[in-house]
User: What shape does this take?
Amino acid sequence: MDTLPIDQLMALDRRHVWHPYAAMPGTGPVFAVKSAQGVYLELETGDRLVDGMSSWWACIHGYNHPRLNQAAQAQMGRMSHVMFGGLTHQPAVQLAQKLVQMTPAPLQHVFFCDSGSVAVEVAMKMAIQYWYNRGETQKQHFLTIRHGYHGDTFAAMAVCDPVNGMHHLFRHSLVEQYFADAPQIPFEGVWEDGDIASFEAILERYHGEIAAAILEPVVQGAGGMRFYSPPYVRRARELCDEYGVLLILDEIATGFGRTGKLFACQYADISPDILCVGKALTGGFMSLAATLTTTHISETFAQGEAGVFMHGPTFMGNPLACAVALENLTLLESYDWATKIFAIEAQLKRELAPCRDLPAVKDVRVLGAIGVVELHEPVDLAVVQPQFVAQGVWLRPFGRLVYTMPPYIVEPEQLKQITQAIYEVLSLNP
Ligand SMILES: *Cc1c(COP(=O)(O)O)cnc(C)c1O
Assistant: This one.
C-alpha cells in the first residue's frame, strides 16, 4: 500500500468514506491516524494524542500490544480463517472455555458473532426460539428500559432508546417493543422498589407475549452514560423469573472489568439467561463478540421444530479474532486489573470534580474507569473536537455528554492530561 499525501487522503475521505453517525460528504472534523502505540494515537500531522476513548471501550490494553500482535501473527501462520460449519479449531474452543470460566457459572455455551449488534440479534433470536421450542409461540416481544443502547441493526435498534434512536424514522420497518421508564436511582443511591414499578407493570400485563427483558446492567452506555442502582438489576432478575420471561444482559460495553467488576451484573450478584459480550473482547484488536447462554436454554433446541438454532454468520468463530481474544483475556487475568480500575476511578473522581463548578456542567459522575461530564446543552463537535486535539487528547463527546473510558494501562500523568483537557475545553465553551 502506498502512502497518500495528507491533503489527498483527507479529500478522498470526504468524497468517498462514510463515517459513523455522519453525513456524506462529511461535515465534522476528521483526523487521520498514522499509527497507535500504548495509550497514544499518532496522527498523520505528527501530533500525538492520549486516547481517552479506548476506541469505544475496546482497546483496554492499549494499541499495538506486543502480546496481541504475537498471538495474531502466530495464528496467521496457521490460518486466518476457516468456515465454522462442521469445522472447529483450537482458538475458538479455548476462547469458549475461557469465556465460560470467566462469566457467571450458569452460562455454559458460547455463540460467536462478528459484532456487538449481531450478538444482540443472536440473543433476541435465541430467546424467541427458546419459547417456540417450548410451544410458547406467542412470546416474541421484548421489554427494555429507556436510555438503553444495544446496537444499530434492526432488532437491536428496536430496543434502543426510541428518542435517541429516532425510531419514528424507521417506524414501518421496526418492531415496537415495550419500554419501561429508565431507572432513576443512581449507582450509590438508596434502593426503593418504586424505581422498577414501570418495568413490573409491563411484565404483569404483557408477560404472555414477552420473550425476554434486555438490559445493560448498572451502566447504560451510548444511550446516555447513566449509572443506576444494582438492586434494580437484582429486582429485574426476580421479576423476570416470577413472570416467566428470560433476562438478556448486554455487557458489550461493561464486560471485562470496565466498571470495577469483571461483569457489571456481579454488582447485583445475579446472572442472566443470555449474556452478550463484545467490544473489549479482543482488546480492540479486531471485531469479535459472543452470546452466552445456559444449558436450560440450549437443551430445548434439539427438541424444537427447527431442531437447531437458526443463525450462522460466514465469519463465525474467526480463528484470528479468537486467538487474539484468548490472549487478551489471558493478559487481563495476569495482573490485578481491579486495583488499576479503582485507581483510575479515584483519580477521575478527584480530577473531574472541579468541572462541577463550570457553568456549562450539569452533572459529573464516575464509575470504575468511566468518567462522565454531562452538560446542560449539546456540545458542538466541530468546535470542541479540534480543541481536544489541540490539548493533545482524543475524546469524542456526543450530545450533552463529554466522557472518557481510557485504556486500563493509562498512567496517572496521562489520565491527568485527559481530565485537564476536559476542564480546559469546557471552560472555553461556557
Ligand atoms: C457498542 C454496543 C453495542 C453494539 O456493538 P457493535 O459492535 O457496535 O455492533 C451493543 N450494546 C452495547 C451496550 C454497546 O455498547
Notes: The two ends are 45 Å apart (CA to CA). The CA atoms of residues 35 and 53 lie 16 Å apart. Residues 115-117, 120, 149-151, 216, 221-222, 250, 252-253, 278-279 surround pyridoxal-5'-phosphate (CB under 6 Å). The mean pLDDT is 97.
